[in-house]
Each structure stands twice: as structure tokens, then as C-alpha cells.
Write a structure and sequence with these properties.
Number of strands: 5
Strand order of the largest sheet: 3-5-4
Number of domains: 1
Distance between the termini: 56 Å
Low-confidence stretches: 1-15, 170-177, 217-225
Radius of gyration: 18 Å
Order of helices and strands: HEEHHEEEHHHHHHHH
Length: 262
């Protein structure tokens, strides 16, 4: 049985090349259904550990912005679950299988619908770019062997908790394994394109990160703690804005003009 499992893993490794939205080669060999299951179980755990907001205005605001982004994302996930959590940190996340979580602490820092869209575009981009699968596959290949497969069915196990960290929900489970800088930069650019295509002003992404930097003082907000430096991120976004503005102007011309309000 062990030989069969190892052979299966070897075949998966040799036939698992994927390509990110920006054309980067990826190692990502776990089936989409397994990734969706992991995302769903992680989301249920988070909903048990954190208070779900009952504010209709906040939820409607989050759904309005998220829906505008998802409408242009070409995602093959039919129904996304969007929740707002009563949590002071300026943070948000998206999980495989179509799960989006937004902390109430994000809204005082992301002061406009465009700035919230910059965060949500970034997080949805991680899902669209298959970054969770890439990180789990890399860990699978390097360290954990077939143990990760069994962990998919048990997120409460030690290995299962590690998987949640790989999916970027470590603040909730006590383990955080950050995306690589390559993945973060990729999510920034793909997210910038998404928000622009949805009709949100991409120029406000720079203002968002400036707000994030100011809000944290010496200690950056949790959302920034595993990301590239503010200066690096802002410079990369500024370089990408001319093309994003073309997407934004095309979106505006086609009638995409989100008007999400609290």
C-alpha cells in the first residue's frame, strides 16, 4: 500500500505543472475538490472561533464590493460565501472553494469602497492564482509526504492545523506560514487588475497601503505582517497602475460603476 501511495505521489509530482495568471510555472497537484474541502473546513472553524457580524450595513457593503470583483474574475466557483467577522485587526482572507472573510477592523483603515476592493481583489487573486494549492503541494513534496492527504480530512490534527496555516488563516489556528514574496506580488498585480476591471479606481490601492502603514505605527497591521515592505509594494503598484487605468476606464465606459456604501 505504501509503495502504491508513493508511486501515486510521484506521478502527481511529475504531472503537476500549472501556470499562474501572470504566466509563472507552479507546482500544484492537489485536486481542486480537496482544496475546496480544506477551505470549507477552515472557514467553518473560523466561524466557530470568531464572532460573525450581525451588522446588515457592513455585510451588504462587503457583499457589494466582493460581488463586483467576483463578477469579473472568471472564477469557476458558482457561489461564494462572504462573511464579516467582529475582529479589530485590519485583515481579510479568501480560501479555496469560494470563502471570503473580512474583519471589521479593515473598514476604518480602508476608507473607501475602492480601498476595500484593493484588499479583496488581492485576496481573491490568491485563490484564482491557486496559491494555496501551490503552498500545500510544495510542503507535501518537501516535508510531509502522504500525511497531508489524510490531514485534508482532519483539520483538527497537528498536520491539519499546519494546512490551515498554509492557506493563510494562521491567525485563527495559531500557525501562520506566509505566502512567498513572489506570490504576494503576484496577488497584488492580479488583484489590481480585478478591482480595475470591476470599476474600482486602482489608484486608491496606493492610498490603501499608505493607510495600512500609518495605522500600524512600528507594528504593522496583521494583514501586512507577512507581506513585502510597504515601499516595495507601493513601487510595484505604481508601476502597474498605467495598465490598470486602461482596464478601469474600459470598465467605466462599459457601465461598471460600483456604488457600494456603508
Amino acid at each position: 500500500m505504501l509503495k502504491k501511495l508513493l508511486l501515486t505521489g510521484l506521478v502527481a509530482l511529475t504531472a503537476s505543472c500549472a501556470t499562474s495568471p501572470l504566466g509563472r510555472n507552479q507546482l500544484a497537484f492537489l485536486p481542486a475538490d480537496d482544496m475546496a474541502k480544506m477551505g470549507a473546513e477552515a472557514f467553518e472553524n473560523i466561524k466557530q472561533e470568531m464572532k460573525v457580524s450581525q451588522s446588515t450595513s457592513l455585510v451588504n457593503y462587503a457583499v457589494c464590493i466582493s460581488s463586483a470583483i467576483l463578477d469579473v474574475s472568471e472564477t469557476d466557483i458558482p457561489n461564494w460565501d462572504i462573511e464579516v467577522f467582529e475582529e479589530d485587526s485590519a485583515n481579510a482572507f479568501a480560501l479555496p472553494g469560494g470563502k471570503i472573510g473580512i474583519h471589521t477592523g479593515l473598514f476604518p483603515v480602508a476608507k473607501t469602497q475602492h480601498q476595500v476592493a484593493a484588499v479583496l481583489g488581492h485576496e481573491v487573486a490568491h485563490v484564482l492564482a491557486n496559491h494555496g494549492n501551490e503552498r500545500v503541494s510544495q510542503q507535501f513534496a518537501v516535508e510531509q509526504g502522504m500525511a497531508l492527504i489524510s490531514a485534508i480530512a482532519s483539520v483538527q490534527s497537528e498536520t491539519g492545523q499546519m494546512l490551515m496555516g498554509l492557506l493563510g488563516v494562521g491567525a485563527q489556528v495559531g500557525i501562520l506560514m506566509p505566502y512567498s514574496r513572489v506570490q504576494e506580488s503576484e496577488a497584488d498585480i492580479v488583484g489590481l487588475h480585478l478591482m480595475a476591471k470591476a470599476g474600482f479606481d486602482p489608484r486608491e490601492s496606493v492610498a490603501l497601503w499608505q493607510n495600512m502603514s500609518s495605522a500600524g505605527g512600528e507594528q504593522p497591521p496583521e494583514f501586512l505582517s507577512t507581506h513585502p515592505s510597504h515601499e516595495t509594494r507601493i513601487a510595484e503598484l505604481q508601476n502597474a497602475i498605467p495598465y490598470a487605468m486602461e482596464l478601469y476606464q474600459a470598465a467605466q465606459s462599459s457601465g461598471r460603476r460600483p456604488n457600494c456604501k456603508l
